[in-house]
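Weekly structure sync, notes
Attendees: PL (lead), two postdocs, one rotation student
Agenda item 3: pending single-chain targets
PL asked that the sequence for the first pending target be pasted directly into the notes so everyone works from the same version. It is reproduced below exactly as submitted, 135 residues in total.
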Amino acid sequence: MDLATAKQSTRSQQDELMSVVPPAVVATTKQTETSRALFECETGGYYWPGTMDVLLSGDADGAALLEQIKTDWSAKSGWTVRDKTSVNGDPELVIVSQAGFRHAIEYNPERNALNVLSSSACFQMEGKPKPGVDY
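Predicted structure, written out during the meeting:
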């Protein structure tokens, strides 16, 4: 896998995770297109980090949407889903693929928002990442 594939796959998975959210209850969506950093993997290579923030309309039930994501992705082959509480004290799912993609989805009830923090599976690239470059 290369950087372009890792990035495209990560963003595509974020879109799929949020596909349970009906468009009518989405106030705004922001998704990372580039990252100013690539991070080293323990096994060598690098991973691309990205975020997606979905602000829900006032009447949307974010907790129920998080549960629906849990149900849907628990049934997917090659993925594991774990419930936890975020550092902010909010409900969170950690969804990891056998290939190494990772998505932490937090429901923030104060904002009525779902926030996804993702990292791609590890990929190889020529040389090292350069500071200040958008990846």
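Discussion points:
- Residues 3-119 form one domain.
- The mean pLDDT is 96.
Action: rotation student to compare against the earlier draft before next sync.
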